[in-house]
């Protein structure tokens, strides 16, 4: 059974990144992590707002469809075939 130590893993990872043209990434700084968390939170707020807008638009369309169905029924009574 083969156990990878950190140094062996690090060598393997470097070799893999070179062979497969994967960019090297360093450890993120605390500032970068905070910025990333802020960005994710802002994206969540935008998604929530978009969901609210979609809900309002859907409710409006549903209400208009019900009103149209009522009008359709009353207009159908006037038309005699």
From TrEMBL:
SUPFAM superfamilies from the UniProt entry: ATP synthase (F1-ATPase), gamma subunit
Membrane topology: Peripheral membrane protein
Any one Gene Ontology cellular component term annotated for this protein: proton-transporting ATP synthase complex
Keyword Membrane found: yes
Localization per record: Membrane
Keyword Transit peptide on entry: no
GO terms of molecular function: proton-transporting ATP synthase activity, rotational mechanism
UniProt cross-references to InterPro entries, sorted A to Z: ATP_synth_F1_ATPase_gsu, ATP_synth_F1_gsu
Keyword annotations from UniProtKB, A to Z: ATP synthesis, CF(1), Hydrogen ion transport, Ion transport, Membrane, Transport
Family in the record: Belongs to the ATPase gamma chain family.
Protein name: ATP synthase subunit gamma, mitochondrial-like isoform X2
